[in-house]
Amino acid sequence: MVKKVILNRSGTDKIRSLNPWIYHNEIKKVSGVVEKGDVVYLYSPEGELLGTGYINPESKISVRVLAFFKKVNPDMDFVKDRVSRAFTKRIKILDRSDAIRIVHSEADGLPGLIVDMYGKYLSIQVNTAGMERLREYVIDALVKILDPEGIIERSDERSREKEGLQTENKIIYGKVPESIIINENNVRFYVHLEKGQKTGFYLDQRINRYIVSNYIKKGDQVLDLFSNSGGFGIYAGVKGAGDITFVDISRNVKPLIEKNCELNNIKRYTIYRENVFKFLTKVSRTEKKYDLIVLDPPSFAKNKHEAKDALRGFKFLVSKSLEILREGGLLAVFSCSYHISMEDLKKITLDVSKNLKYSLEIVKHLFQDEDHPYLLNIPASLYLKGLLIRKNEN
Ligand SMILES: C[S@@+](CC[C@H](N)C(=O)[O-])C[C@H]1O[C@@H](n2cnc3c(N)ncnc32)[C@H](O)[C@@H]1O
What we know:
Layout: E1 3-7, H1 9-16, E2 21-23, E3 27-30, E4 39-43, E5 49-55, E6 61-68, H2 76-90, E7 99-104, E8 113-118, E9 121-126, H3 129-133, H4 135-146, E10 150-153, H5 157-162, E11 170-174, E12 179-184, E13 187-192, H6 206-213, E14 221-225, H7 231-238, E15 243-248, H8 253-263, E16 269-273, H9 276-283, E17 290-295, H10 307-323, E18 325-335, H11 342-356, E19 359-367, E20 385-392
Parallel strand pairs: 1-4, 9-10, 14-15, 14-17, 15-16, 17-18
Antiparallel strand pairs: 1-3, 2-6, 4-5, 5-6, 7-8, 8-9, 10-11, 12-13, 18-20, 19-20
S-adenosylmethionine binds next to helix 7, strand 15 and helix 9.
């Protein structure tokens, strides 16, 4: 029998505003003993049905909502319906790329599940105990709806640890080659499905790679900082940049950038396996100047306590980058942490502008691509934001 969870006032208010995460201290009472991953019905203190979710007493987020204000049975049909709706919503994006996110967790009504499509292959993450229980339905639904040649699991170690789960990454259906080629806006990339970061590629930046590349002029000197496999720099090369410098600390990315340059017929480039902070310090002591600089660091603030240090880090990065940017040049700066807001990015930029006496213009506000939806009632779902900034002549 499905157990009942009675929420307190604050939990009830959250559900009423369609927020799908309930913390331990928002639960008033649980009827009986629950195991991690159990499906539960949610009620207000007055007995009003608030929805269906799954519970994990070991996790900070105790309940994740599967459906609001109704009882659902998360069976095969339920999962199939959610996957099918998520896919249909994104079909138009396939005109631009054969690599897209199909399921984005809560934003697609399947909390704890990420599904990315890379051509004929799928890379998935099962990150919660509740979703672990639905694993078989998920694989079945993906095979029936998307007919992939293979599925690889790349679950997020940190998330699974928080849920008290172990991580094992492996091929869970069909065959998956070590690396494949994807085509994004007619720019091609090798993707390592087994070893690449995230599920293989930073799909959320697709729209921004495209927008930023439209500002490239023939012969531009481009600096792609925190480049990973070269996303922004490779686009710039395809658009005619004269020379591209890639900087990333990871030891795995150099051979990938080289292969991506070859694939897109890019000849003039340099790769540094280096800490960006050190690289910028060094270059800012020289006369070298760039026409476009991209700053796309990892999430410096995984929680609100880390935000202060992260802001200091950003200030350094923005300040040093602007020093080595030519007048009239562009800086694209991104934060993929929910705890650093668009306003934070602007405040940092304004502070730097005052300190260095640069006249700066915000050319564009940038966000994650639409296959990583931002749901208004889930503030944390807007995690990637960026600014395209022009350094005007004084
Ligand atoms: C968000 S990803 C960049 C994605 C990339 N722009 C793209 O479009 O594919 C961040 C990258 O920063 C690298 N990184 C993390 N810390 C670094 C550091 N201190 N210096 C240089 N690279 C770093 C990681 O290896 C990772 O590849």
